[in-house]
């Protein structure tokens, strides 16, 4: 059905359309079928999603940042990272190497605030 619709639109350029009409874009998928291209959905920035999944907890005289999500955090479509690593790289703006390890600043479970790297 979509193939016929795509061919019909391609063959009839004289079709009268209103001035504000935007023709849907058609693509060919991996199976060779013509499908409609959808507009990508709006996404919230990674830092806003991260903050929504954390909670500041007062422990002694210092605050802990406790992660309330799962074991990993999806930064974007291609990047999945541990939440503590994302917190470190975002807070300090410093990228960690693949073999660098973060050490906890406190004994609070699921705290993503770390004191140093090695």
Brief write-up:
The chain has 118 residues and is α+β, with helices and mostly antiparallel strands. The protein has three helices and eight strands; from the N terminus they run H-E-E-H-E-E-E-E-H-E-E.
What does this structure look like?
The chain has 118 residues and is an alpha+beta fold. The chain has helices spanning 2-11, 46-52, 83-92; strands at 26-28, 34-36, 54-59, 62-67, 73-74, 80-81, 102-104, 114-117. Strands 1-2 form a two-stranded antiparallel sheet. A hairpin with a 5-residue loop joins strand 5 and strand 6 (80-81). The chain starts with a helix and ends with a strand. The relative contact order is 0.13.
Highlighted features:
8 strands; two-stranded antiparallel ribbon; two-stranded antiparallel sheet; single chain; 118 residues; alpha+beta
CA radius of gyration is: 24 Å
Taking pLDDT < 50 over at least 5 consecutive residues as the criterion, the unreliable ranges are none
String of helices and strands: HEEHEEEEHEE
> Can you summarize the main beta sheet?
2 strands, antiparallel
SSE-based structural type: alpha+beta
Secondary-structure map with pairings?
Elements: H1 2-11, E1 26-28, E2 34-36, H2 46-52, E3 54-59, E4 62-67, E5 73-74, E6 80-81, H3 83-92, E7 102-104, E8 114-117
Antiparallel strand pairs: 1-2, 3-4, 5-6, 7-8
